[in-house]
Amino acid sequence: MTEATPLLDVQGLGIRFGGLDAVKDVTAVIPAGQITAIIGPNGAGKSTFFNLISGFYQPTAGTIRFQGEDITRLRTHEVVARGIARTFQTTTIYRELSVLDNAMIGHRVRTRAGLWDALLRTGRERKDEAESRAGAMQALERVGLAGRAHLPAGALTQEGQKRVGIAMALSSDPKLLLLDEPAAGMNPEETVNLMALIRELVTGGLSVALVEHKMSLVMGLADQILVLHHGQKIAQGTPAQVSRDPAVVSAYLGSHAHGGQMGHGAAAGADAQGTGGEAGHA
């Protein structure tokens, strides 16, 4: 990947479900070393866009290139192996397992041992397990949970469980981290803590793309914003540029009876909506 090549480059991306375009002709880039927020009204196609990038859905049109490599037709585990990891709207962790065991699961995509290795406890299996443990502990250090590694994940606070989910993704050693509504269900103090963690991860060399409804978080955290509406891109730029874009203002004003979500006053209104957002509707 040359300096001029974006980390992620999608061209004419689209997918149809039952004759309807969930995402249509989206061309956008996600640069390295930045936080890119994907926003839009309910049903805009944000989570579907994430599903396409991460290999959960196969597009019906367009291409996806990551670090210059075409990954359009790769399966999910192949996308993860290339360096893209993802969290989900709901905290997908194993509550009965330890925090460390959860993080180790995320690292297993990097290991080579197979079923017979696991059954026979071969040298390769033992080596992979040691590497997974070390990689998981490193991920837990990054999210501030190393000291709680042996606690059951379900014993942690909502914020702690969110951090476990992020650690699971970090354990696969990604270059691009996709966060799907990371602040859902969190109170203002927890949200501020999460913002600080995300910024710290990017300062440490990670690139982040996130879908989020809390506009105060987006405007205070994102380096750039991609706006989707009815499955299509209507704007991309800095928070200041996007908040002044007439198409963006119109999209939000048209979908919220009491005004849009853009700007300072509207951001508070977006936060007041809590997590009602887009779950299951993107």
From TrEMBL:
Q: Name one GO cellular component term.
A: plasma membrane
Question: Where does the record place the region Disordered?
Answer: 263-282
Has UniProt tagged this entry with the keyword ATP-binding?
A: yes
Q: Name one GO molecular function term.
A: L-valine transmembrane transporter activity
Q: Where is the composition biased (Low complexity)?
A: 263-273
Q: GO biological process: any one?
A: D-alanine transmembrane transport
Q: Which UniProt keywords apply?
A: ATP-binding, Nucleotide-binding, Transport
Matches recorded under InterPro entries: AAA+_ATPase, ABC_AA/LPS_Transport, ABC_transporter-like_ATP-bd, BCA_ABC_TP_C, P-loop_NTPase
**Name this polypeptide is given:** High-affinity branched-chain amino acid ABC transporter ATP-binding protein LivG
